[in-house]
Amino acid sequence: MPFIESFNAGDFFATLVSLLAAFGLGTLIGAERQYRQRTAGLRTNVLVAIGACQFVDMAMHLAGPDGAVRVVAYVVSGIGFLGAGVIMKEGANIRGLNTAATLWCSAAVGACAGADLIAQAVLLTAFVLAGNTMLRPLVSALERIPRSEEETEATYGVIVVTRADPAELRGKLAALLEKAQFPVDVIEPDERADGSFELRATLVNTSVRISELDAVISRIRHLPEVVSATWTRSAAD
Hints:
This protein is α+β, with helices and mostly antiparallel strands and about 240 residues long. It folds into 2 domains: about 1-145, no CATH class; about 150-235, ACT domain (Alpha-Beta Plaits, 2-Layer Sandwich). Helices cover about 60% and strands about 15% of the residues. It has helices at about 1-5, 10-35, 40-85, 95-115, 120-135, 135-145, 165-180, 210-220, and strands at about 90, 95, 155-160, 185-190, 195-205, 225-235. The strands form 2 sheets. It has a 4-stranded antiparallel β-sheet, with helices on one face. A two-stranded antiparallel ribbon has the order 1-2. Strand 4 and strand 5 form a beta hairpin. Its main location: membrane.
């Protein structure tokens, strides 16, 4: 039988050791994620680790180190699609980036184990756990530091209401903002129920001086066709 003819006890034992290492290290990473009730918990991280391990291990046995390198490249790109599934956008906020990054690292741990780099897999696991646990107090401390709005990146927008032709005002609005060193990414017109038009201009700048933006808004309000003008701020993605 082909299975009996191709079976090699040494290769089988090496694969077993690699899978056990990937399983154990993936469990350590996943347990921390499960404890914090993240989207991708214990089982997901373990499956990612042993899956990446087996793909790389199989390539090592079939095509040697060169084949394993090619498979690792596919694992790196393929795990990105899985990570994208745990990233969620809620309004201006994005959740799941850290969980997706952890899955990526679990795949790297599994790939190391599959390539018989067990020591490197253990070392990487230690760094992943350190990043997800030891850095939390530092993150909390940095978030408590008071900052002015000018020091934080955000998406700024200008909202202008007019009863005149929005296409004509659109050019004036863009020119005023460009002159004030606030380049515009996009201006979107929207007709309101009362027959007026609302122009929403999204600025390219992610960090601005509020006093300068207020001055530009004041000049926009003095345009004869403008009913009202204001600016908005939302957290940068």
